Amino acid sequence: MTGRLQLIRAALAAGVLIVASLGAVALAGSATAAQTPDGPKTRIVGGDIAHTADTPWAIQLSNTGSPDPTGEWCGATLVAANKIVTAAHCSQEAASTYTAIQGRDVLSDTSTGKESKISSIWVDPQYGQAAGHDVAVMTLTTPFDGVPTLALETDKAADAAGAASVVYGWGETEGTGPANTFQKVDVPVLGDAYCEQAYASEGYTADGEICAGYEEGGKDSCQGDSGGPLVLNGRLFGVVSWGVGCADAGNPGVYAEVATYASALQAQIDG
Questions:
Q1: Spatial contact of 64 and 42, defined as CB atoms under 8 Å apart
Q2: Are 208 and 261 in contact (CB under 8 A)?
Q3: Is 225 among the residues known to form the active site?
Q4: Number of C-alpha atoms within 13 angstroms, CB side, residue 218?
Q5: Choosing from 38, 66, 68, 89, which is the catalytic residue?
Q6: What's the confidence (pLDDT) of residue 4?
Q7: What is the DSSP letter of 100?
Q8: Which of 98, 123, 221, 234 has the greatest number of C-beta atoms within 10 Å?
C-alpha cells in the first residue's frame, strides 16, 4: 500500500515525521506505527492568547503517557455534556489513560477547570484503512453539565476557499507564544485544489479533509493541537489532523472534515 508521510499534529516531539501506511494507525505508541514514548501533541503557531471562558466547548485531552508535566496530549471539542470529538490518531491508548479538561487556559494551573475521565472511545472504523477518517468520539465518565457545546457542521460545501475558520489549542508555538497556554489563530480555507497539489505525495483527500492556512506560512496549528477544533460559523468545521512541519510556506494544516463524518459522529454522540 502507498505510504503516507505526515507530521501527525499530536506527536510530542516537534518536527518528527511519522511514516505510516494507509493500512496502519499513524499514531506514536500504537502497535502498527513507529514506536515512541512521546505520544501525541500539537500547538498554535503565530496565534493569539484565547480564553476558554469565550469558547467553553474547547477541551484539553491529557494522557498518563505524555512526557509533558501537564499531561498534554491532544485537543478535543465538547459536543454533548458527556461526549467529545477528537482525532482518531489521538485515541489509540486505553480509555483509562485519558483525562478531559474543560475551562483551563494555562495547563499548569490545576486550580481552574473541570476534569473527567473517559469511559469509552469510538474510533472511525475506516481510520487506517483509507485516507482521512481521522475522527473519534470519547464518552466522559463525569459529564460537563451546564457547559455550552458546539454543533457539528453538516454542509460539505462549507469548505469553500476563503472561508474564515479559526483553530484553537494548547500545543507547540515554535516560540510565537507561551507554551501550554490556550491560543487561537485564523486559518482561512485554501481549498482542496491547493492541498491536492501541495500534498500530492502525502495522500491528501478532498473527500474528508480540509486544507486551511496561508500559502506563505507563518500561522498554523502544530504539535499538541491534534484533535482540537477548527471552527467556522459557530460550528465544529474540522478536527486538527496532520501536516508537514508547522506554519511552513506551502505546507498548510490538514483537518478532518466534520461534515463528511457528521452522520457517523452524531450516531455516537446520541448513543
A1: no
A2: yes
A3: no
A4: 5
A5: 89
A6: 22
A7: E
A8: 221
What's at 246, amino acid-wise? Answer: C
The conformation of residue 67, written as its DSSP 8-state character, comes to S
Please calculate the CA angle 251-256-262 and round it to the nearest 5 degrees: 160
Which is catalytic among the residues 116, 165, 221, 226? 226
Q: What is the pLDDT of residues 191-212, one digit of tens each?
A: 999 999 999 889 899 999 999 9
Q: Which CATH topology does 47-270 take?
A: Thrombin, subunit H (2.40.10)
pLDDT-derived band of residue 220, with 50, 70 and 90 as boundaries?
Answer: low
DSSP string for 115-157: EEEEEEEEE-TTBTTBS----EEEEESS--TT----EEP--GG
CB crowding 46-83: b at 16 or more within 10 Å, else e: bbeebebeebbbbbbbbbebbebebbbbbbbbbbbebb
Q: Is 134 in the active site? A: yes
pLDDT interval class at 176 (50, 70, 90): low
Grid-cell match 465518565, residue found: 141
SS3 268: helix
CB 136 within 8 A of CB 91: yes
The single residue of 68, 134, 159, 192 carrying the catalytic annotation is 134
**Coil, strand, or helix at residue 258?**
helix
Band of residue 12 on the pLDDT scale cut at 50, 70, 90:
very low
**Catalytic residue flag (residue 165):** no
Does residue 8 sit in helix, strand or coil?
Answer: strand
pLDDT at position 30 is: 28
Dihedrals phi, psi of 39, to nearest 5 degrees? 70, -175
Q: Is 196 in a helix, a strand, or coil?
A: helix
Going by pLDDT thresholds of 50, 70 and 90, the confidence category of residue 102 is very high
